[in-house]
Amino acid sequence: MTGPGARRRPPIVVVLGVSGSGKSTVGKAVAEELRVPFVEGDDAHPAANIAKMAAGHPLDDTDRAPWLRSLAARVRRSAEAGEGLVIACSALKRAYRDELRAAAGPGLWCLHLALDRDTARDRVARRTGHFIPARLVDSQFETLEPLEADEPGLTVDATAALAANVALVSAAVGHFTDRTAD
Q1: Does 62 fall in a domain?
Q2: Are 136 and 56 in contact (CB under 8 A)?
């Protein structure tokens, strides 16, 4: 329980899921609701990763390493500055989330946007201006490790209304930050 003098720690929220789950859309809305900066994780991919995915080849852990280091550095800067952040990135494996959590400390909270393969494939196929082809969706589902019980966060239906998910996340993050207040 936090006392009246406790300072609420700004949250660092990782919005995760497979391609087509709505990470960017939901992440931007959550960042606006929480009044913290938003970071698009795709922007941290090296050009070689983007080219590989655009050619229809899934990334492996070696490919993801520089991307993950870049995101962890951004998370660390926010945590050290005592600033909140919402970052949209696939974070498909527990190990990736653990690396981000190590950079953030106890203030990292994850939002997993869950949806079925067919919906994800359909969304990716209809998307314009993005480098990931629909045929990579299956490999992402094969890589995906859902949030575990000991990971602070929440799994929501990625097909639910945006406003409903943002309200749910705002309440859950508020409860989480109350528990992690200094």
Answers
A1: yes
A2: yes
